[in-house]
Every structure is written in structure tokens, then in C-alpha cells.
Amino acid sequence: MSRILIVEDTPLMRDSLVDVLTASGHEVTTADNGLNAVEMIADGAEFDAIITDIIMPEMDGIQAIMEIQSMQPHARIIAISGGSARMEKAQGLETARRLGAVAVLEKPFEVDTLLTAVDAALA
Question: What are the 4-aspartylphosphate sites (modified residues) in this protein (predicted)?
């Protein structure tokens, strides 16, 4: 069983991701923003993969990716984004890819697309 951290500020999206990944046999932990995720990892939490939104309060996904990678350089990160008024989805996802995200997904995405990305990240 793989341990996956979901970093997502929207409760409905976070709950949907938890449901899909739990049903697929993964152990799932959640954080509602990048700062909470970084604090978990700084406190010693370990995950096989991290799925993070890009646009979030407190600390966005880009900053979280950079902080997480400074602590765990080989972290397997999947970035997801629906964009916002201040950032197009493609812009944030391309930045995440350049920072080392193993996969990027534009919201909305299909369940199969998510599971394929998770499988690739865990391989």
C-alpha cells in the first residue's frame, strides 16, 4: 500500500481525490494548503507520492514543491491545477514541471488519468 499526500484547498476536490485513491488501495493523508504539507514533511512524515494543487492560500503549490524538494530531493510530485484569475493553469503546471513534478494534470481530469499519473509516480 502506497502512502499519498493530497495538498488541496477545495474540500470537494480533496474529498474526491481521497475517495478515488482510497478505493484504489492507497493510504491517503491530506493537507489543505502548501504550508500544512511542508510542516508535515518537516516533522518527519514520509509519502510515496504527493499530489498538490498549485493555487492555494497560505502557501501555493509552487512554493510547496520547492520547500518539499529541499527536504526530500527525490519526492514524487504530481501537480494539479484549474488555474485562477491571476495564473493560467498551463503557466503554473509548466512551472511545476520545470521544478521536477513527475506529472501535471489540468482540472478537470478523468479518474483514469489521475490513476495513471499516480501509478507512474510510484513506479
Answer: 53
